[in-house]
Amino acid sequence: MLRNLALMLLFETLALDTLRRTNFPGGLKITALSRSGINFTREPFFRSLLLAIYKSRLGDLLRRARIVIPETHGRLLMGVIDETGTLEYGQVFVRYSKLVSDSGKELITLKGKVVISKNPCFHPGDMRTFEAVDVPVLHHLVDCIVFPAKGHRPHTDEMSGSDLDGDKYFVTWYDKLLPQRENVDPMDFTSPEKIVLDRPVEVSDMIQFVSEYIKNDQLGIIANAHLVHADHDKVG
């Protein structure tokens, strides 16, 4: 990854690939610009973009352990529900664009074993294996993950207690990243019952609420501790 980050500043093919896999606000037709003869490693604007990408991804790697994988091996996609009721429990439907920069063109439908997870991912059950199937009636849903509406518990809730209100999920079909074991039982993310007062809220109630919030606000501490343990572990 580090080698490719450096080489993208020197070689046009790597620069094109990097820019093509980067989502820019408003969208940039990178492939079309390349065909027009623009040299991305020398043109000032695009070279500044490459330098910004280099700095951003290097920072993500150092601070957040974010490792970029090729777009041929995985994607970060929004989750949606199967309104047709076709998918069975344990199945998903994923139809994605071959190139991130050309959404809706050269579509590929996944088939077979895939792994899906969501940030934050701390519990072993937050990373789950599914069977990707081809469902023609869902072909209009592109560049997203379609989860089944069937089952005793939503698959999205099994992963960090997430839902389908815009959450994005990481999916990979890369053989070397597929676990060889069965799914670990997911953690119980059931929220505690809310306290309903039969009287007006008082200052003491607000103080109690803030105190409980501070006491339970541990996600950042857990995340940093998780990275520390991973750094000390020989296998990461």
TrEMBL record:
Reaction(s) catalyzed by this protein?
RNA(n) + a ribonucleoside 5'-triphosphate = RNA(n+1) + diphosphate
Known EC number: 2.7.7.48
Name its GO BP terms in alphabetical order: siRNA processing
Signal sequence, renumbered to the chain: 1-15
Q: Which Pfam families match?
A: RdRP
Q: Which UniProt keywords apply?
A: Nucleotidyltransferase, RNA-binding, RNA-directed RNA polymerase, Signal, Transferase
In which family does this protein belong, per the annotation?
A: Belongs to the RdRP family.
Question: This protein is called what?
Answer: RNA-dependent RNA polymerase
Q: Which organism is it from?
A: Desmophyllum pertusum
